Amino acid sequence: MLTLDTLSSAAAPSFEQPLEMLLACHDKIRRFCDQLDQLPSYIEQHGVNEAARNTIDGVVRYFDLAGPAHHTDEEDELFPLILQRVPTAASRLEQLSAEHGYLHSCWNAIRDDLLALRDGKIHSISRNELAEFARQYREHAAAEESWLFPTAASAISAEEMSAAGQRMAARRMQQAA
After folding, report:
1. Is the pTM of this model over 0.90?
2. What's the distance, Cα to Cα, between the start and end of the chain in Å?
3. Residue 174's pLDDT band (boundaries 50, 70, 90)?
4. Mapped to the 3 state alphabet, what secondary structure does the chain carry?
5. Could you report the per-residue pLDDT of 105-159, keeping only the tens digit for each?
6. Are 105 and 132 in contact (CB under 8 A)?
7. Which residues of 39-77 are buried (b: 16+ CB within 10 A; e: fewer)?
């Protein structure tokens, strides 16, 4: 079995350490949320310049590709194994899955505005909508870090985790093709 000590490894995570990789994704999510929080003020001061367009492109790319892949990894790899071992976790897993769907729909709502802003079709964006999306994503990540990852670490064997990491990597390669 994996332990929580495994989650604090100093080496750069890879799919050989799926929980560490998912945790590193949460760090990226928080960085992109920080960028979304800062974007309206930046645009008020500097307009939609190259730096703003690059930031928007990076945020859109992350939440269009990596965000959904991250949710799929959790739902396809962690959730079923946790449910087998911890049947009382069903409602918590259902809640996390529902949050994934909600976050995706919230993303779709701000994505179009971000692209319109980048392309000069609109000149400002709702600070409140961006802040609310970022807040919800941060809270979701914190909930996973406090319950999902430790539960997975204690319920899923090292061999199962390794196999999950291999499937996660294969999905990424399939996406890239």
Report:
1. no
2. 33
3. confident
4. CCCHHHHHCCCCCCCCCHHHHHHHHHHHHHHHHHHHHHHHHHHHHHCCCHHHHHHHHHHHHHHHHHHHHHHHHHHHHHHHHHHHHCHHHHHHHHHHHHHHHHHHHHHHHHHHHHHHHHCCCCCCCCHHHHHHHHHHHHHHHHHHHHHHHHHHHHHCCHHHHHHHHHHHHHHHHHHHC
5. 999 999 999 999 999 999 999 999 999 999 999 999 999 999 999 999 999 999 9
6. no
7. bbeebeeeebeeebeebbeebbebbeebbeebbebbeeb
Could you identify the residue written with the tokens 């998912």? 22
Q: What is the pLDDT of residue 4?
A: 37
- Enumerate residues 6+ apart whose C-beta is below 8 A from 152: 2, 19, 78, 81, 82, 161
- Predicted confidence band of residue 88 (pLDDT cuts 50, 70, 90): very high
The Cα 52–Cα 50 span in angstroms is 5
Q: Is the pLDDT of residue 13 over 90?
A: no
Tokens of 91: 């409602």
